[in-house]
Amino acid sequence: MAHRPGLSYRFTHAITRTPSDSVSNGIRAIDSGDPDADRFREEHGLYVKALQEAGLTVDVLPPLEMFPDSCFVEDPAFCLPEGAIRLRPGTASREGEGAAIQPALQSRFDRVIALPGSGCVDGGDVLMLDNIILIGLSARTDREGAEAFAHLLTDWGYSAKVCETPAGVLHFKTACSTLGDDVILATRVMAESGFFGDRKTVVVADGEDYAANVIRVNDVVLVPEGYPQTRAAIEAAGFKTVLLPTHEARKIDGGLSCLSLRFALAEG
Question: In the chain, how long is the greatest CA-to-CA distance?
């Protein structure tokens, strides 16, 4: 795939979903208390506002009580200018989320297809750069799903690579993000992984690993509040930041990227 400047951060639209009351039953690796649904919705409102202020048209979908984790819309789908791909989350309780988000995808894309085969891919394991898409293997993304996804992306004219996510990392993007312009933000273990070649890497400050999950949206980088050293490092690398609270999302293993599908619609 040829270098496509801005593919990883130049967006026109986003899809989000309002957290449900059942979000208190969301999946988490470590129990640090249940998220408060009302506070989560307040934080989500600030998130939507930040996307809008960055220039995006945001579709806000209604809550789905039967799927506690459904506000994390990044996991059941992946969007590119050419179309959307329904993924297959690797957790049984999330199996119906792809079908639930299908109408929202169809409202924005003429082309919506499902991940072939029976393997699993969570969108949180997919890192889009400007010349390659990295797919991390994890407890939620298996090799069958990752390879089927990579073949599909190749058919669409993209380069894709399957990576072995370091042990102890929930999702590939739990530990890294693209800042665009061939700059990566990553935890120390991810920065030393070799996945990013000769790209410049900004290393997350010790003790601030959660802040590895940020999103570049057009001219700003959305950063979780409470991680001042990492924010300073991002700004020192030349990027403008916007702070957002993610306290409730973090209680169920969520971060900024999880809460939206971001894409640029093809012209014409």
Answer: 48
Quote the tokens at residue 91. Answer: 């957790």
CA distance 259 to 60: 11
Digit-coded pLDDT (tens) for 1-56: 557 889 999 999 999 999 999 999 998 988 889 999 999 999 999 999 999 999 99
- The whole-number pLDDT of residue 133 equals 97
Question: What does the pLDDT read at residue 179?
Answer: 98
| pLDDT beneath 50, residues of the chain | 268
* 150-176: burial string, b at 16+ Cβ within 10 Å, e else: bebbeebebebebbebbeebbbbbbbb
E strands in the chain: 13-17, 57-61, 77-80, 83-86, 112-114, 126-128, 133-137, 160-164, 176-180, 183-186, 200-203, 215-217, 220-224, 241-244, 261-263
Query: Are 127 and 136 spatial neighbours (Cβ–Cβ below 8 Å)?
Result: yes
CB 137 within 8 A of CB 162: yes
DSSP for 227-260, please give it: -HHHHHHHHHTT--EEEE--HHHHTTT--TGGG-
In degrees and rounded to multiples of 5, residue 15 shows phi and psi of -120, 130
Best CA proximity match to 223, nearest among 177, 168, 187: 177
Residues classed as catalytic: 171, 258
pTM above 0.70, yes or no: yes
pLDDT of residue 46: 98
Query: What are the structure tokens assigned to 229, written together?
Result: 């050293």
* DSSP state, residue 141: S
- Strand 57-61 and strand 83-86: pairing? unpaired
DSSP state string for 82-123? TEEEE-B-SSGGGTTHHHHHHHHHHHH-S-EEEPSSS--B-G
Encoded tokens for 88: 């297959």
